[in-house]
Amino acid sequence: NAALAHYSPSNGSSRTLSAGEMYLFDTGGQYLDGTTDITRTVHWGDPTPLQKEAYTRVLMGSIDLARLVFPSNTAGRTVESFARRALWEVGLNYGHGTGHGIGNFLSVHEWPVGFQSNNVPLSAGMFTSIEPGYYRDGEFGIRIEDVALVVEAQTKEPFLTFEVVSLVPYDRRLIDLSLLSLEQIQYLNSYYKRIRERVGPELWRQQLVEAYEWLQQSTEP
């Protein structure tokens, strides 16, 4: 069912999950200090080579856009293709937007931030999702969605970049490391280190031992 970019369940289409397939879950919540919108795709068995490559290329696009440095007041549509490039290289694509504004305890899809032609230019302080994907009709769907904050880059001139604030590991079973560049691997290791430092102590404080151990395994370099 995740082969549809926006799927709504019904009694006629619902079915039992199995461990031998991909599972996409789009999650979110409203909190007094912010709104979350995070999507992860996982596989509990042995993914096919196509599933691994497609997932890895979606992840590459997410990383490439997240670590991009760009001039202030750049339109989102100008940088959107960085999220698609790794997929385009092998003739793959996705048929939805790459991101949308996210409100502070407000709308999950908040106008006018995003990466489409009718969105406003990006500026520091904006929250947007970054969510490339890939969908194969009747077989599986992949999407990786993070919430990112537009921040000032450490450059001589006033440039911008993104800080991903969603702290959730990616599925290691689905990553083909041979496709990643050294810079992408370094980004992943830095991201995993940040997850361990910020989320790990809170899980330990709440005595969520099983979740803590899962987090340690999922964020190994």
Automatic annotation (TrEMBL):
GO MF annotation, one: aminopeptidase activity
Residue ranges constituting the Peptidase M24 C-terminal domain according to the UniProt record: 158-221
Domain Peptidase M24 span(s) in chain numbering: 1-151
Keyword field: Aminopeptidase, Hydrolase, Protease
UniProt cross-references to SUPFAM superfamilies, sorted A to Z: Creatinase/aminopeptidase
Keyword Hydrolase part of the UniProt annotation: yes
Pfam families the UniProt entry points to: Peptidase_M24, Peptidase_M24_C
Keyword Protease: yes
Family: Belongs to the peptidase M24B family.
Name of the featured protein: XPP2 aminopeptidase
Organism: Grallaria varia
Organism ancestry: Eukaryota, Metazoa, Chordata, Craniata, Vertebrata
Gene that specifies this protein: Xpnpep2_1
